[in-house]
């Protein structure tokens, strides 16, 4: 059975990027994958500095990444790019530790990417940045990527269930595509 790790780039408790992730997770599970939902807020790490000792939470994050075959990453767009906290976690996890070589926990995995925004572009500008980062580390990124525009209109207030059935289906199909690619 394919094992997928899903996480959002936002650290906010009720972030849209966390909420849209659920539909993709449902699709991956329906396609037969085992999915672990991870909250980056549970793995606080200092700003990456190669002069510092390897961070314990970064090692925990590496361990979780190593256990999975694929990734579903949902990112908000911050100033046209990735959120700093997510990029920092990726930078820590890609580095050499006492257990893993450079990029070992990423290399050979396959990833699906989602972005979301209250605006008309849906966070589209950050997808190229995320694809570039993942590709450099040896991650195969699915060619289809989803940008959820006007994301606030796709949920009932602060609810976690997506009310826009069209986008819910698109996201579920992305999760299913990832799961099927890992078989």
Radius of gyration (Å)? 15 Å
Q: Identify the CATH homologous superfamily.
A: Flavodoxin domain
Question: Which parts are unreliable, with pLDDT below 50 for 5 consecutive residues or more?
Answer: none
Main sheet specs: 5 strands, parallel
The CATH topology, please? Rossmann fold
- What characteristic shape results from the CA principal axes? globular
What distance lies between the first and last C-alpha atoms, to the nearest angstrom?
7 Å
Strand content: 15-25%
Instruction: Give the averaged pLDDT, no decimals.
Output: 96
CATH class: Alpha Beta
Number of helices: 5
Task: Quickly give the structural class.
Answer: alpha/beta
Question: In oligomeric terms, what are we looking at?
Answer: single chain
Order of helices and strands: EHEHEHEHEH
Number of domains: 1
Q: Count the strands?
A: 5
> Numbering strands along the chain, what is their spatial order in the largest sheet?
2-1-3-4-5
Helix content estimate? 25-40%
CATH architecture: 3-Layer(aba) Sandwich
């Amino acid at each position: 059975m394919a094992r997928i790790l899903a996480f959002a780039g936002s650290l906010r408790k009720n972030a849209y990027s966390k909420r849209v992730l659920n539909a993709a997770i449902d699709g991956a599970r329906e396609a037969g994958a085992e999915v672990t939902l991870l909250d980056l807020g549970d793995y606080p790490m200092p700003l990456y500095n190669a002069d510092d000792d390897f961070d314990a939470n970064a090692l925990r994050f590496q361990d979780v990444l190593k256990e999975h075959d694929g990734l579903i990453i949902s990112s908000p767009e911050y100033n046209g790019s990735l959120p700093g906290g997510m990029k920092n976690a990726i930078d820590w996890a890609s580095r050499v530790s006492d257990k893993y070589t450079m990029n070992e926990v990423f290399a050979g995995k396959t990833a699906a990417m989602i972005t979301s925004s209250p605006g008309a572009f849906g966070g589209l500008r950050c997808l190229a940045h995320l694809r570039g980062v993942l590709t450099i580390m040896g991650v195969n990124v699915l060619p289809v990527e989803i940008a959820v525009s006007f994301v606030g209109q796709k949920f009932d207030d602060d609810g976690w269930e997506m009310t826009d059935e069209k986008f819910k289906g698109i996201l579920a199909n992305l999760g299913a595509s990832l799961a099927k690619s890992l078989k």
